[in-house]
Design a protein that fits this description.
This is Mg-chelatase subunit ChlD. This protein is of the alpha/beta class. The protein folds into three domains: 97 residues, no CATH class; 45 residues, no CATH class; 163 residues, Rossmann fold (3-Layer(aba) Sandwich), CATH 3.40.50. The chain contains 16 helices and ten strands.
């Protein structure tokens, strides 16, 4: 999330005064960053309206894209760009002063909306503003998006946990991690073009997997529920539900900011789980890791997955010590800077480096990649 405190005074004045001050600000040496431009678009989308609430930006030419924003886009943008106090003011103004209802208060609009992740995130960010009848409609949207996500991930999960790779046999199932690279190259060498230095692959080959016989494993997902981690929260809920259905795996899901919320009892219902998540607040990762340590029954058969941006709001030293204690008892620790379909991380690399030194593995993964990682660790 962007911090307005890092904006220079000229940019702040430009955001306050709006587009009319462009010339004066540029003459004074002002140069807006990409985040500042996005802030300006979000503010103009809301406050650049006529007295009747209409969008005066609808015919704006050569602007910064404000007129292209939808209400869900705008909600997600302000949560990315502004601090909590500003977000609350913007949302209140949108509803009370400009009657921008859309997905927040209008059941007809919500009923017509196409379920997708953008809408899901907007609902989760504004559910506290919804009336009970609108919340019922929103829950149906959440259920549908979660169903779509689970349908895809459950297939990936089943394949990942279907067994260890058997390099003596091949399979018709196309799993990237099972690619028989040598055979692919060998069988397609006849299609190599030496002039273009290009190999055209017409046929792929994948190794088969042996049936997996697993002992009981304990997987503890610790999810940072700060606003910037919403994508990871969504996919963590879906991942936990898929893991819950696997034999030989006991799954825990714990959300945290400065407080700890154990959501394990709702893991089999990710929709209900997501509707209970309270986004925002500080970050106390070390406390969450301490809680996970108390849940572990057999250290050598436990995996702790920290899903966070690793910006520790409490004691970084305590966090590193707690992780070192877990790895010393042969518990596997994985730190994920992102868990979503894009896996594009924004995190504290310095803290991540210290976690690796303490014995953890750190990276960014899609849910399918996490399933493959877990399957590899459990099956070794």
């Amino acid at each position: 999330m962007s911090d307005p405190g890092i904006l220079d005074p000229l940019t702040r004045w430009r955001l306050v005064l709006g587009e009319a001050s462009d010339g004066a600000c540029r003459a004074a040496g002002g140069n807006m960053s990409a985040d500042a431009i996005a802030m300006d678009a979000a503010l103009d989308w809301l406050y650049g309206r006529d007295e009747d609430g209409g969008d005066r930006n609808i015919s704006r030419q050569g602007g910064r894209g404000a007129s292209a924003l939808t209400t869900p886009d705008w909600i997600n943008d302000i949560h990315r760009l502004f601090p909590k106090e500003t977000i609350e003011r913007l949302e209140r103004d949108a509803i009370e002063n400009y009657a921008i209802e859309d997905i927040i208060t209008n059941a007809d609009v919500l009923a017509r909306a196409e379920p997708n992740e953008t809408l899901l995130k907007a609902v989760l960010r504004t559910k506290h503003l919804m009336s009970p009848d609108i919340l019922v409609m929103a829950r149906k949207l959440v259920q549908e998006v979660v169903r779509q996500l689970m349908e895809k991930l459950s297939r990936d999960m089943a394949l990942a946990f279907s067994g260890v790779v058997d390099r003596r046999r091949h399979s018709r199932f196309k799993i990237a991690s099972d690619l028989d690279f040598r055979r692919v190259v060998k069988d397609n060498l006849k299609h190599y073009d030496p002039e273009k230095r290009q190999l055209t692959v017409e046929r792929l080959h994948f190794f088969a997997r042996n049936q997996r016989h697993m002992k009981q494993w304990q997987i503890i997902l610790l999810v940072d529920q700060s606003g910037s981690m919403l994508d990871s929260v969504i996919h963590s809920a879906v991942t936990a539900a898929c893991l819950w259905a696997l034999p030989g795996v006991k799954t825990h899901l714990v959300a945290f900011d400065t407080e700890i919320v154990d959501l394990t009892s709702d893991v089999d219902d990710p929709c209900e789980l997501l509707m209970k998540v309270q986004l925002g607040g500080g970050t106390d990762i070390q406390r969450a890791v301490g809680y996970a340590a108390e849940l572990i029954t057999q250290p050598e058969n436990a995996i702790v997955v920290m899903i966070s941006d690793f910006y520790e709001g409490s004691s970084e030293a305590m966090l590193i010590n707690r992780v070192a204690e877990l790895t010393a008892q042969r518990t596997l620790v994985l730190g994920l800077a992102a868990l979503d379909s894009a896996a594009e991380p924004a995190y504290s690399r310095e803290t991540a480096r210290k976690l690796v030194a303490a014995g953890a593995e750190v990276g960014a993964m899609t849910p399918g990649e996490l399933a493959g990682w877990l399957a590899a660790k459990i099956g070794r």
